[in-house]
Amino acid sequence: MPEANRFAAVGEMTRNALIKNLSVRFEETHLPQPGDDARALVCGLLDLDLTDLVLAGKEAVSEDDVARILSAAERRCRHEPVHRILGWRAFYGRDFLLSPETLEPRPDTETLVSAVLPLSRSVIAARGRCRVIDLGTGTGAIGLTLLCELPQAEGTGTDISQDALATARRNAQRLGVSDRFRTICGNWFDAVEGEYDLVVSNPPYIRHGVIATLDEDVRGFDPVVALDGGVDGLDGYRSIAAGAMSHLAPGGHIAVETGYDQQDAVCGIFQDHHFRCLERITDFGGNDRVLIFSRKPQA
Q: Residues marked as binding for substrate?
């Protein structure tokens, strides 16, 4: 069968048969996780979970749905990521819409949210509220998750992309926190006024020279501006550290995600701007992932 017609002329199928069909094609295309991708596409497009597949895998899928799924599968064969095709990705138990100028929120970043929740709750206990700013917010995954978890929190998301900010606002509306979330278009702290109890960010931290070597799924579909951290991958941290002192409330904290091999360098940058590192946190895979800072005590 010619390549272009591999998924053509297929009628009604069972869920199991459809997943097998996709898995074989994905394996032939040398995708690294053919079975996982097949299940994710079928579940995502049919609004199923894995339990539905286990308990009702022999249930028929309509011809129209089969055609829709096979069209999506062709996109995956061209290396478009599954969640780009679906248009959303789950983060901390909630679904976040994606758009061309946002990164997909990833499980490693959940480490940052878990790390700052206790700090935020302490602020709320002492002051009745917690003011959060999410720098480079993208989908809003970090900041909006904190607002969902903390009803007394108020959030601001900044980004240089209007597309990303519009996506963050849509996610805030879907999650029911839009009344406590506002957006600012600007680079890091450039357009920010006022003080915040918590500064959070997952800045671009990939070295510029590495971008061209990334998997096609990443370099072909993720916005480069959200990946490229400059020559040494640290440009974003320098900007955040330089602006944070003017916008961090007394007793406040800064939490940033880092690459697995960058924590010493990032600590040095913040220490040069009169912050001290309170905690280094690893992700689910045991890699260095999150740093938490506060102001250095006055001498």
A: 202-205
Give the residue ranges of the annotated binding site for S-adenosyl-L-methionine: 136-140, 159, 188, 202
* pTM metric for this prediction: 0.92
Q: Does 18 lie in the same domain as 135?
A: no
Averaged over successive runs of 10 residues, the pLDDT of the chain (299 residues) comes to 46 86 95 95 92 85 93 96 97 97 95 97 97 98 98 98 98 98 97 97 96 92 95 98 96 96 97 97 93 87
| Length of the chain, in residues | 299
Dihedral angle, C-alpha 297, 245, 156, 288, nearest 10 °: -70
Instruction: Enumerate the known binding-site residues.
Output: 136-140, 159, 188, 202-205
Residues 254 and 217 placed together within one structural domain of the fold: yes
Residues pairing with 158 in the sheet: 135, 184
61 and 77 together in one domain: yes
Same domain, 110 and 50: no
Q: What is the CATH number of the domain that holds 82?
A: 1.10.8
**In which domain, by residue range, is 209 found?**
93-295
Q: What DSSP line would sit under 146-185, residue for residue?
A: HHHH-TTEEEEEEES-HHHHHHHHHHHHHHT-GGGEEEEE
